[in-house]
Amino acid sequence: KMLCFISTWDISRSLLCSVRKSKALHEHASTRKKGGFRYRETNGERRYSGSGGLLSREMSQSSDSNQARNSGHEPFVDEEYPGTATVRLRSVHERIEQLSQQDLSGSWDEVRRKLLWAGGLRDLPDARPGAGYTGHSFNDYNHCDLTTMRDDEADNENEGRVEGMAWSNQLGPGIKIASLPELGAGGSWSTCMIGCNKEPPQDVAHVQFRSRIAFKLVWIPSTFTSFVLVDDAGNLLATGHPKGTLPPIDERRTNFRVVQGSKFATAAADLAD
């Protein structure tokens, strides 16, 4: 007779392999492909992988997006940047599409208000900083990222993660006050874009809030009197030619320098005058 001795290690290894196979089969079964990229359904949420532009276009074709906007529920999860309020991001893109060239070529004050509206933000120039104030939004070189983040990410602080930013930058209360609710769950904010020229971007949106940007405003060289709006992949969304008193020229020049060398500079560089 031959006796077989099976060690505890052999049993554990066998069980582990079995669990891994089961998990792989489950993930394979729940992974689907649509619109050129993949999503997984987990507990009623679709977890998408793909660029922000692809995600936004896919959602525009989904009835879930409109239902979620009305219900305040967030059924889509961006796997790379899970802090993104994805339904809200799509709503911002829809509003950008509604803006005509004329809308973005009026007086700067009016154009800026339209950008706030498109981004899901109230125009609150007289509010206290930290309590919903949006007078700085798009008015300097830095606060030119329109970010849509989930509610559970809005209270995140920098804590040294973004170079050049204050350790404690509690934005949550202001985000809640300034955000327009009709665009969907989560909030909007004009976040600082310092660090966006790195790959992957090391700015407030992507690092502190773990979110894609819905759009970024970049002033076009060499006169810096016109701007482009680009999405998280650097794709051109719109152009504007505002009139009247613009942000100071040094702010507009610095705005382009911050993105120079990155995907976010391409559209503006291509239109350089």
How large a portion of the residues is in β-strands, by DSSP E? 15-25%
**For the residues shown, what is the average pLDDT?**
80
User: What general form does the structure show?
Assistant: globular
Distance between the termini: 90 Å
The secondary structure category is: alpha+beta
> Which sheet architecture does the biggest sheet show?
5 strands, antiparallel
Residue stretches low in confidence (pLDDT < 50, at least 5 long) are 1-31, 33-38
The total count of helices amounts to: 9
What is the N-to-C order of secondary-structure elements (H for helix, E for strand)? HEEEHHEHHEHEHEEEHH
> How many E-type strands?
9
Biased composition (Polar residues): 58-70
Region (Disordered): 30-80
Biased composition (Basic and acidic residues): 38-48
In short:
34% of the residues lie in helices and 16% in strands. The chain is of the alpha+beta class.
